[in-house]
């Protein structure tokens, strides 16, 4: 439950060699200063569909799409179109929806059995219903896309043929979804992207439209759900912190940031990159041209030279510039949305059930292994 011991001392070297679940090796950048700079450095390419690049999974070409150029200038063009549709206004409009949804889910939880799994009661349904609303996806589709996304994100969970089935199934689902939305445009983000595509087809290709819809759907709930679940579990394990928040709910935003900083969802979400040339780091070591590179947000978030007492969970921490949403040209498009949902989930749960607590010792919470996210797979709570 505590921050993993392995993160201590990791920054003694600016660059460490790591073995990925596939068995391939990559280098991992450990220090905050380097990680932050390299997130914005075009000498690290995100186009990893090239020979010799390490694989995260031996059975799944996670996030590799040779038809998508994930580097500037193409990425800049596509990302600009997506962020334009992702307006602050759209997100603010979603707050009352997220609040009403959380309240309804907590009503259902109150009427249900105890203990209840917090993942299924709140952590997953909340972001799923919010992303459905944002993208304009019928919420009835959620059982279907959730199992396809689960397969899509398998690292070692499923054999290659089942991964392939999920990838194809998800793509086929998106083709149908986009066709039906095209026939009936609404005031949602996918409709906005379809309009961009159809009104000026040089700006967004059909494949790019599908790819970004897929990215938004996957990134839009899996990460947030995992963070709501594991972050809340950590908080419930620390009854003193729960009481502190309940005495002053203005602490919710800084508590949410601190739980993001010390996230224990497992694997680093920053995806793999490729060094197009030699890149020297702060201590003089060099990332060699052709290396596969991971920028470790977890390690950067524990950097003693940036965060005072980094292994302490301090829900009042100020200037918490953690790297959990990445930085630079790929900075998380959904960061504001995720923050809003995390705040709504945390505050609503603690207000509605003042005595909510884990039903098992924190050490007994099982991890969901073999997928891209390794948050707790079952979080039984009582109240
Ligand atoms: C707690 C929740 C979340 C976390 C921790 C998170 C984390 C991240 C990180 C670290 C990156 C950068 C990856 C890289 O540079 O390799 C990223 C990118 C991205 N995120 Fe999030 N994310 C979260 C929620 C969301 C949500 C809610 C959405 C959408 C609704 C979203 C959409 C995206 C997209 C589309 C990108 C790719 C941006 C690009 O390549 O330019 N994320 N996220």
Model description:
By secondary structure, the chain is an alpha+beta fold. The chain has a single domain (5-382), classed as Cytochrome p450 (Orthogonal Bundle), CATH 1.10.630.10. The protein is 47% helix and 8% strand. The chain contains 13 helices and 10 strands. The model has no long low-confidence stretch (mean pLDDT 91). Bound molecules: protoporphyrin IX containing FE. Residues 79, 131, 215-216, 219-220, 223-224, 227, 269-271, 324-326, 330, 332-334, 337-338 line the site of protoporphyrin IX containing FE (HEM).
Key terms:
5-stranded mixed sheet, binds protoporphyrin IX containing FE, alpha+beta, Cytochrome p450, 383 residues, 3-stranded antiparallel sheet, 10 strands, 13 helices
User: Whole-Å distance between the termini?
Assistant: 21 Å
Query: Which descriptor suits the 3D outline?
Result: globular
Low-confidence regions: none
Helical content class: 40-55%
> What are the bound molecules?
protoporphyrin IX containing FE
Alpha-carbon Rg, integer: 21 Å
Q: What is the β-strand count?
A: 10
CATH topology: Cytochrome p450
Question: What is the count of helical runs?
Answer: 13
Task: Output the helix-strand order.
Answer: EEHEHHEHHHHHHHHEEEEHHEE
In CATH, what is the class?
A: Mainly Alpha
* CATH homologous superfamily label: Cytochrome P450
Could you describe the largest sheet, including whether it forms a barrel? 5 strands, mixed
Number of domains: 1
Largest sheet: spatial strand order:
1-2-8-5-3
Q: How would you classify the helix and strand content by structural class? A: alpha+beta
Strand percentage lies at 5-15%
């Amino acid at each position: 439950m505590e921050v993993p011991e392995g993160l201590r001392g990791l920054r003694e070297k600016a660059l460490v060699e790591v073995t990925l679940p596939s068995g391939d090796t990559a280098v991992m950048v450990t220090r905050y200063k380097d990680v932050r700079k390299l997130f914005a450095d075009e000498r690290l390419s995100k186009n990893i569909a090239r020979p010799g690049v390490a694989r995260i999974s031996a059975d799944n070409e996670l996030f590799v799409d040779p038809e998508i150029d994930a580097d500037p200038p193409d990425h800049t063009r596509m990302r600009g179109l997506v962020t334009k549709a992702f307006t602050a206004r759209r997100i603010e409009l979603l707050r009352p929806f997220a609040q009403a949804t959380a309240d309804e889910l907590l009503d259902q939880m109150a009427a249900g059995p105890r203990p209840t799994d917090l993942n299924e009661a709140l952590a997953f349904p909340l972001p799923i219903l919010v992303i459905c609303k944002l993208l304009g996806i019928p919420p009835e589709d959620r059982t279907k896309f959730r199992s396809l996304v689960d397969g899509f994100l398998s690292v070692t969970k499923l054999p290659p043929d089942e991964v392939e089935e999920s990838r194809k199934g998800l793509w086929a689902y998106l083709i149908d979804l986009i066709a039906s939305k095209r026939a009936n445009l609404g005031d949602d983000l996918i409709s906005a992207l379809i309009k961009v595509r159809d009104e000026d087809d040089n700006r967004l290709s059909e494949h790019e439209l599908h790819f970004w819809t897929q990215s938004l759907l996957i990134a839009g709930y899996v990460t947030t759900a995992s963070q709501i679940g594991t972050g809340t579990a950590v908080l419930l394990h620390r009854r003193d912190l729960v009481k502190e928040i309940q005495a002053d709910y203005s602490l919710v935003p800084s508590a949410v940031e601190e739980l993001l900083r010390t996230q224990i969802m497992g694997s680093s979400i920053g995806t793999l990159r490729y060094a197009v040339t030699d890149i020297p780091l702060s201590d003089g070591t060099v990332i060699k041209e052709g290396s596969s590179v991971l920028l470790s947000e977890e390690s950067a978030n524990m950097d003693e030279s940036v965060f005072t007492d980094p292994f302490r969970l301090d829900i009042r921490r100020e200037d918490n510039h953690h790297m959990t949403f990445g930085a630079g040209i790929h900075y998380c498009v959904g960061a504001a949305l995720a923050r809003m949902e995390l705040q709504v989930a945390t505050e609503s749960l603690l207000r509605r059930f003042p005595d909510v607590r884990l039903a098992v010792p924190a050490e007994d919470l099982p991890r969901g292994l073999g997928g891209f996210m390794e948050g707790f797979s079952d979080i039984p709570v009582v109240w």
